[in-house]
Amino acid sequence: MALLVQKYGGTSVGDPERIRRVADRISRYRGRGHDLVVVVSAMGQTTDELVTLAASVTPDAVRRHPREMDMLLTAGERISMALLAMAIREQGLEAISFTGSQAAIITDDRHTVARIEEVRADRVRRELAAGRVVIIAGFQGVSRGREVTTLGRGGSDTTAVALSAALGAERCDIFTDVDGIFTADPRKVTSARRIPLIGYDEMLELAAAGASVTHPRAVEIAARYGVVVRVLSSLLEGEDGGTTIARRIPSMEDPVLTGVASEAGYGQLVLRGLPPEMTTMTLVLSRLTLAEVSVDLLTQVDQADGRRSIQLTVAASELTQAEETCQGVVAELGGEGVDVTHDLARLTLVGSGMHKRPGVFARAFQVLRDQGVEVHSVSATSISIILMVGGQDEDRAVRLLHEAFKLEEVGQ
After folding, report:
1. Residue 148 belongs to what domain range?
2. Per-residue pLDDT for 63 more than 80?
3. In whole angstroms, how large is the CA radius of gyration of the chain?
4. pLDDT grade, residue 166 (50/70/90)?
5. Residue 15, helix vs strand vs coil
6. CATH of residue 159
7. pLDDT(94) > 80
8. What angle do helix axes 360-370 and 394-404 make, rounded to 10 degrees?
9. What is the layout of strands, in order, in the sheet containing 116-119?
10. Cα–Cα distance between 69 and 58 in angstroms, integer?
């Protein structure tokens, strides 16, 4: 019998009827002889409701009371796991639910943003050997100091893939409300197509770029341990379709691009007239780190007068703090000033085939320029091109690039 790990997101377990449908699906898999570990998220909007509840008691609860926020937020997954275990047992199967701590998912001690350090799966293995379906609360773990922790955004995906690696599962199936990974967000591009197979590197780029179906941390773990991940819709009756994320060898027949993703909510700063020494960049980055500002994109350009400009992109939520910090650094170094651009979106073109085909950069720029879309900055890796455009142009730019590179043919 193959061991499978399945993860069901909040939409999949959003109400009692959907929980019963998940139980039906699990029963079918058990009927085929599979051992199952099932990871669940909180029902529907439960986590958001708990965050709102905390805010009604105290402002900025995550920053001021991180430990208690972890205690509060883990309640959502505990509700889901218990209800699903009950529904499975009503199917005549043996099932048992575990919290992250009971499943021995060991994390560091950073509340609300913990990272998994180890999975001690002995208890899970014993229950599987006894013929039970094991239901585990996603998004949570326990520190070595026995404190309850949560894993942050995408935590249930991360839990599922980490368990798959620890248990040596044949596959990790992530059930969500969409049928796999698409060449673009289908809500923005009607011609977007499902991608049947995608490599870890490409998926990591798309996930980091805003393709919210899977989380980058989960993909990183999958790549490190060779976990095969399949993304499927829990809202469809059959189990065909979906997208498989696995290690694959690029070939000459690969398409130039695999997909395009976008994410709004960025701002850009340009620090002008700085000294050209290496210590300048070091000082800027160290001050931003002290201010707890995360830099997304970073470039530097030497000016005609011999001085240097540094251009950096940050999340809009951190733009005010970043501007204050950069103004201080520029003044300290005798620079010329700081220019700020608000309301930007990040577009990311991803494809392992682009390094074999010249002109991808030029084609992307040409298409956007011809349609009056201003590109504020660019960056690239071996398999991606990142372009910052105005927020008002985000959806149109995604459609233009999807059409220009014929991404609707990728899934055919």
Report:
1. 3-177
2. yes
3. 23
4. very high
5. coil
6. 3.40.1160.10
7. yes
8. 130
9. 116-119, 105-107, 140-143, 148-150
10. 11
pTM: 0.88
d(CA 189, CA 397): 10
Q: Is residue 411 in some structural domain? A: no
- The tokens for 23 are 């139980």
> In this structure, is residue 212 part of a structural domain?
no
Closest residue by Cα to residue 201 from 216, 188, 189: 216
**Residue 25: alpha-carbon gap to chain centroid:** 26
Q: Is the pLDDT score of 335 beyond 70?
A: yes
Residue matched to tokens 């599962």: 169
Alpha helices, H only, 291-371: 319-333, 360-370
Q: Which amino acid is at 236?
A: L
pLDDT at 119: 97
Residue range 116-127: mean pLDDT, rounded: 96
CB 174 within 8 A of CB 8: no
Total length of the chain = 412
First to last CA, the chain: 33
- Count of domains observed in the chain: 1
What was the pLDDT predicted at 253?
A: 57
142, two tokens: 């326990």
SS3 assignment, position 382: coil
Of 230, 344, 192, residue with least CA distance to 219: 230
